Amino acid sequence: MMIENYPNERKMNCETGVMVNMLEYYGIKFSEPMTFGIGGGMCFLYFPWMKMNGYDMLILRTRPFSVVSHFSQRMHLGFHMETFGNDRDKAQKALDDLVAQNIPVGVVVNLMGLPFLADIGIRLDFNGHNLTVIGKEGRDYVLVETHEMRTTDDYPRLDEAKLTDARFRPGFATPHGKLFYLDPLQAEIVEKTDLRPAIIEGMKETCNNMLAIPLRWFGCKGIHTFAKAVRRFDKKLSQEQINKMFFWYYTMIEQGGTGGAGYRYMYSSFLKEAAPLLQSDVIDECAATIGKAADCWRKFTIGCNRYIKNANITLNEMADAIDEAGQYEYDTFINIKKYLKTVKKIKS
């Protein structure tokens, strides 16, 4: 048993991809960038004293699952989420009960537990990947995987034991069986909703993430802190350690997910969509500025690959790209913050 003809296109991001597919299933067309922006998905954190897989913690978006949660709240959707501690049996029963009702269910899993992604070279120990369960045949769940590197249009299958393992893999930010789903929606009501209040709330959250946290590891300040650390890598790390660090950054940012550049490109598209709704040239200009920041992040990650291959690039050049990204992001969010101060309250 499975939901027939469920949306199955590749997406920019797994979390927003799951959400826009659910909305489309209920008859509502919504863009990923708008979902990401309303959900307040962009941020920056650099934690050199905390490690992920042995490497300095670098985070370029809000925590997994927060985007769909905040988006649903701001759009007044009937959104449900459950976690299950360490109770695997309860988590599987809850999933089976929903699937039996033909309800598409988003689940949060570890990438390492998904053989259909490992087959295309994605082997990242990351506990924040989202996919959708749309059915069950025997002991196998029928899934929708939106990763852009997916090579077939099939709905992958995964047996219940392996999916449960992926939902409960230990380590940093273990999902604890987390699942989420939407109540059936009335498309005509959602489509008539004024998006402006939700857009403004999403912008406020992101401005806070990037400007208001008074610690040097967060937001725009954190980007410059990270650049300073990269300049000093050769003072603290061996060449082998630097290569491993850059390989980790490259893999995490460009191969393992939407990435630093990808999230910034998404945010640029969000602002571009939002500008005519808000009738704001300022927001339109900010879309271009954050796009330039995205280009700088892409330059850094390409630099990681070049550095590992000893392709004539220095740590200072890579740090310059990071600093430039930080300045563009500061300019973007300072201007958005100024704009928000001029906006009269719009009732949702």
User: What is the CA–CA distance across the termini?
Assistant: 39 Å
Major sheet characteristics? 6 strands, antiparallel
The CATH architecture of the largest domain can be given as Alpha-Beta Complex
Helical percentage: 40-55%
Could you name the ranges where pLDDT drops below 50 across 5 or more consecutive residues?
Answer: none
CATH class of the largest domain: Alpha Beta
Average residue-wise pLDDT: 91
Number of strands: 8
Note the total helix count. Answer: 14
Number of domains: 2
* Bulk shape: globular
| Strand order, largest beta sheet | 3-8-4-5-6-7
| Coarse structural class | alpha+beta
Percentage of residues in DSSP E strands: 5-15%
What is the CATH topology descriptor of the largest domain? Answer: Cathepsin B, Chain A
Please tell me how large the radius of gyration is: 20 Å
Give the ordered list of helices and strands: HHEEHEHEHEEEHEHHHHHHHH
CATH homolog superfamily of the largest domain: Cysteine proteinases
